[in-house]
Amino acid sequence: xxxxxxxxxxxxxxxxxxxxxxxxxxxxxxxxxxxxxxxxxxxxxxxxxxxxxxxxxxxxxxxxxxxxxxxxxxxxxxxxxxxxxxxxxxxxxxxxxxxxxxxx
Length: 104
Description:
Layout: H1 2-7, H2 14-38, H3 46-63, H4 68-84, H5 87-90
Helix pairs in contact: 3-4
């Protein structure tokens, strides 16, 4: 993702970014699939909501190519916060209002 976001200000075309885009897409889907396989309720927890928000921001960049850089920067910010937030925030369930505890 860093290669994609970093290349956008230099007006890199899709062909030159095809590899980094595919790697970003594949690894993102695999990591999300692993989380979903563990517990689909993650979609209602802090980390899942962060992923869904990030996907929405990336979709905004796809729908508005002229404004792609701000959308992708916002998605990168959400992903950074989402991946480094404390466990209590990451596993906070918006459905129950409690932190979900997983066995070790």
